[in-house]
Amino acid sequence: MSTTFGSLAVRNYRLWFACALISNVGTWMQRIAQDWLVLTELTDNDAQAVGITIGLQFAPMLLLLPWTGMVADRFDRRKVLYVTQSVSLAVGVALAIVTLAGVVNLALVYSLAFALGLASAFDSPARLAFIGELVPNDRLANAVSLNSASFNSARLIGPGIAGLLIAVVGLGWVFVLNAFSFLAVLIAIAAIRTKDLVPVERAPGVSGTLWEALRYVRGRPDIVLVLVLIFIWGTFGMNFPIFISSMTRITFDLGPEAFGILSSILAIGTVSGALLSAHRESPRIGVIAWAASGATLALILGGLAPDPWVFGLSLALSGIAAITIMTTANSYVQVATAPAMRGRVMALYLALFAGGTPIGAPLMGFIAQVGGPRAAMLAAAGTTLVLVVIAVIYLIRTASLRISWVPERRWPLRFTGRAADRPLAEAEIALTETEDEKT
User: Fold this and answer.
1) Is 116 among the domain residues?
2) Which of 148, 117, 379, 420 is nearest to 286 (CA)?
3) pLDDT (tens digit, 9 = 90+) per residue, 104-153?
4) How many domains does the chain have?
5) I need a surface site. Which of 148, 206, 311, 386 has the fewest CB within 10 A?
6) Structural domain harbouring 211
7) Does the pTM exceed 0.90?
8) In a domain, 210, yes or no
9) Helix, coil or strand: residue 284
């Protein structure tokens, strides 16, 4: 099988990939329907209310950080996922019932978004760390990238279906279909062959696990850098539901069908970016810097777009850049982290990535409400530029990055340096430390 799809040769991962795709389609359908419900049915085009809803959904990842990573490392991840997916199914059913019954209100949506966030806070680190049990370590980076491709393929399919269903049968039935989609993951969990899982070392206790993760990360400046970059991007750059819904409704005065189509266009870029990431053998910090540069330009183009067509083009470019940032950072941290610490470190990663959303989403929603959707996108572009600067400074200092202009070359701008921006395995870290001591 090709390098890009190598992990699909593993039966357990292939099963997980297929069922997760079905579930993710439902998740994206719900996200689109929920945002549209808040923006058009429960408020008068209030982008800040959309931001608050998104913030409440991601707040538990930060609030529960001391426990979520411990659960992912201490307990059987299959059983953890069975519980979290069952709770998510129950929340989806509740949202469908109140919407179809006509009793839904903003307070109920806020409460259910927070409840879903509670389940996701435990689900996400366990799910990401579980990939390391499905495939051998030499295929982990590829599996993480394909997992992102699955998630973003769903982002391509789900919004388009949601936009069509909202217009034809209404919001409530979109929530019903999402509730049923959780069954796919439950089926995958039941069908996985436990004897084929990669053995992992479990954390020996339940106390001090967050501090252990922080101590571990503190000794890895490369991981610290990636966590800082992903926090900035997750807080300010990854607010596309706000950008797309407010630009669609407020700037271009279009309906749910256009909202679904534009969300799917974003997904075209994310799927392309995920497949490109899957083809790379090793995640590198330099790739994050390049992707952040592209994201800055794409967000500026979107903020200045004169019509939906140009805006759609900017979303496709944003999708490629966004998924490259996320997939590279995710793969880097997973590959660079010892298996016994992976759940706790990934919980820290997710808390920083999604934990900033309760700050960034309401802020971007406020900017969109007061200054307009274009101002919000341009503000996000400014923050991604900061991300680029931080990454380049790191590479100049640690990877001996040199930037030169060679006019006679076809591409005159040249970057040179050693490969210090790739994740080091545990053995390599020990060897490097020994060499440093000798020096």
Assistant:
1) yes
2) 420
3) 999 999 999 999 989 988 988 888 788 888 888 778 777 877 776 677 66
4) 1
5) 206
6) 6-197+206-438
7) no
8) yes
9) coil
